[in-house]
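Obj.: predict assembly geometry.
Materials: sequence records (below).
Method: joint structure prediction, all chains together.
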Amino acid sequence: MQTKMPETSSQNAIDVQNAVKRFGNFTALKQISLAIADNEFFTLLGPSGCGKTTLLRIIAGFDEVTEGSVRLYGEDLGALPPNRRPVNTVFQSYALFPHMSVLQNVGFGLEMLGSSSTEARECAGRMLELVQLSQFADRRPGQLSGGQQQRVALARALAPQPKLLLLDEPLSALDLKLRKAMRIELKHLQRETGITFIFVTHDQEEALTMSDRIAVMSEGELQQVGAAREIYERPRNRFVANFIGDTNLLEVTVDRIEGARATCHLGGGHALSCEAVDGVREGARVHLSVRPERLFATAEPAGPEALAARVVETVFTGTGITSIVELEQGPRLTLRSSNSERGNRRVFEQGAACFVNMEAGAGRLLID
Amino acid sequence: MARRSDLRAIPGFRALTLLCLFVLYAPLIVVTIYSFNASASITSWEGLSLRWYWDVFTGPESGKFKTAAANSFLIAISAATISTTIATLAATGMIRTGRFRARSLSFGLISLPLMVPEIVTAVATLIFFNAIALERGLLSILIAHVVFCIPFAYLPISARMQGIGPAYEEAALDLYATKRQTFTRILLPLMAPGIVSGYLLAFIVSLDDFIITNFVKGAGVETLPTAIFGAVKRGIQPNIMAISTLLLGLSILLVTLSWLVSKSDTTK
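Observations (raw structure tokens):
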């Protein structure tokens, strides 16, 4: 079955080609194409209703694409029912079987695959060891805490050794501390098992900390696919820039593009230079995104592109200091500096005049 | 706010409550107490005795009552089993097949018989059995009972099923279970409290049905309620009170059981 598939696609864990999903008049997915590599920790990130869960359910086999195709290691999944796909899911609600013990839950998949019950029990026991829940093997899921149930769900989905693990917002029901600990545990588990993970979340911090690559989705479309750092530092459009982290958006007009550099100006005529971007031409009026931590204030201009401003507010946030400044030309900017930089950078009082400087390469042109 | 919504502040609240409770339970209590009467009269108390219970099992009418009781239990067990099976399948079909056009109509049709006056159902059933020339006897009683037990069994089963989200079945399918395995290993065990509850309800409803049974039973075939009615027509004897008390005890036991089972919700 595998041999007739082309080399290139069989190396990908998942190949989604032009997938469209319509529910009646509503289009949940609009022509999505996506390749997820073997052994990757891949995250689908977006607000609720963006289609990320629909895509996950299509890969799991609970929904079918209206158009297009989904391949798993080169094999077209077509209308293969979920019980015949080597893909397991960690559900948002965990969906642990309440009438079975923790051990029976974890062994269920293996038993359904035809393992003897002793085999299934042994393997389930090993999986429980992996998630450090061996002592709860005989309990019912209802007797465990949320975090423990979450790990049982994980063990249950990993026990049959699927080729692909789907995680549907598995951490959303946990409190913040536990969530942070589980992020690291999940990442660790993915490395240890070598299984490809597709993780769905609306939490950008979760996505940034765990993923090898992230697909940002909105309104049934992929907005940008890339490594965490790339998506954060080089957002493609306004949606991505706003959704991931905080940013300052400045309206600019592009004057000149020379090779990889672009020169543009703000409404007041102040010139700024930044990296050129595919899809933004000379003369275009677009937005420039600058992350708050890549701006800094000085008493004297630190370079020719420094912007004169007045401090509106300065807020201490624990790990850092956030300042809001108003440029002479009108727009307000947010600046953030970490406390460790306090020695180097001056904190300005409210109402003080200052100059705002951009670190080299901090400005990013957005295509819309 | 709390003041205004406090019903207990309304004058006469306590008296009204006590009156309601009295009307509801006094007859039952009187019958229960007098079933232990040593006297042959049903009105004068002559001391505590199990005489009439003894009479029910060994007295001159005991043979008749035993046959009627055997019929009643045979019919109640069969009717409850058949109607619960049908109700379980109906609930699975209607709740687990997604939306279909006649869904709410189906819900209405299946529970409507609960609101149809029983006498109408009884007459209609009798006419129908005559039309198809079904001989009246245990079988005709059983068929009639299965039919009116279905909505009683259906209600707790469908309520239970609606409380079970689709995630469990999806998880089972995701873990390589076939549809059949998903039904037997996951859905049925999760539905068990509803099914047991529905079964007990159907059993009780069948056991004490009088009107429909009286219409469709053949001559000489008696169930416990029709036998009791027949005996009462000839004058109320204390042994009737003993039988009634036994039935009351059984009903309380089964209803309590049904309530306990439906309360043991494993999905929460």
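Conclusions so far: Chain B touches chain A through 19 residues (CB under 8 Å).
To do: check interface contacts against the pulldown list.
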